[in-house]
Amino acid sequence: MNKTLLAALNSSERLLIAETESAQLALLDEDDTALLHTRVLRARNKAQGVYRRGAFGAGQNWLVYLVLCGYATGILATTTSRLLQNTFYALGDTKYPARIAALRVVTSAAVAVPLMFWLDRFPLSTLVPVTTGSRLYLGPVGLATASGFGAWMELYLLRRSLRRRVPGFHLPIREDLKMAGLALAAILPGATVWWLLPAWSPLVTAACVVRSKSSSRERK
């Protein structure tokens, strides 16, 4: 991250960024990952509602959103990998998960560098209709997405090795799909409110959308 931007953040914001690194995500269980996801959403809403005051405009807001989307591609894989690592520990093998975790870091970096330079050729305006004083590029999205690629590679290798040791082992794909369906259903009320709301302050809009999603989850 840009050193000037990092210096402008407070301690809790810097801590949140550090917790989204691949090595830290690998240490989280399901509950911790869900909590981190909630904190990231709150940070996104803060970025939209508080920092959009001229210097941090719509373009920067969209770029932050896309970067968070890139990191989100690896949340499910990271959580599942954590469970599989615990299974290896229960079997008395601590070396293999550590080797795969190291391979994940190396792979993420190897994918991130060329993807960042390739996406940095494209301005943000190629994806979203924004006009900003300074041109923004999609390079940071490549860095974030590469971490998700590394997470899915780690999950694949752990699953393959575990199936060799425990022939009856399988991942709960059907249950995961049900959870994904519920998550998509929870998005609909918030998206509907966002679409229907008038051009209010972003902070007011964000509060209404978050409240609609919370009400949807409470009913479920």
Task: Walk me through what this model shows.
- By secondary structure, this protein is mainly alpha-helical.
- It has 2 domains: 3-171, no CATH class; 173-220, no CATH class.
- It is built from 10 helices and no strands.
- Helix 7 packs antiparallel against helix 8.
- The radius of gyration is 19 Å and the shape is globular.
- The model has no long low-confidence stretch (mean pLDDT 78).
List keywords for this structure.
220 residues; mainly alpha
Pairing-aware structural class of the strands and helices?
Answer: mainly alpha
Q: N-to-C terminal Cα separation, in Å?
A: 39 Å
Unreliable sequence segments: none
Number of structural domains = 2
Q: Over all CA atoms, what is the radius of gyration?
A: 19 Å
Whole-number mean pLDDT = 78
β-sheet strand percentage: under 5%
Largest sheet, described in full? none
Q: Choose one word for the global shape.
A: globular
Please report the total strand number as a whole number: 0
What is the share of helical residues? over 70%
Question: How many alpha or pi helices?
Answer: 10
Give the ordered list of helices and strands.
HHHHHHHHHH
Task: Summarize the entry for a quick read.
The chain has helices spanning 3-8, 11-19, 22-25, 30-49, 58-72, 75-90, 95-119, 139-165, 173-196, 202-219. It is mostly helical. It is globular and about 55 Å long.
Topology:
Elements: H1 3-8, H2 11-19, H3 22-25, H4 30-49, H5 58-72, H6 75-90, H7 95-119, H8 139-165, H9 173-196, H10 202-219
Helix pairs in contact: 4-5, 4-10, 5-8, 6-8, 7-8, 9-10
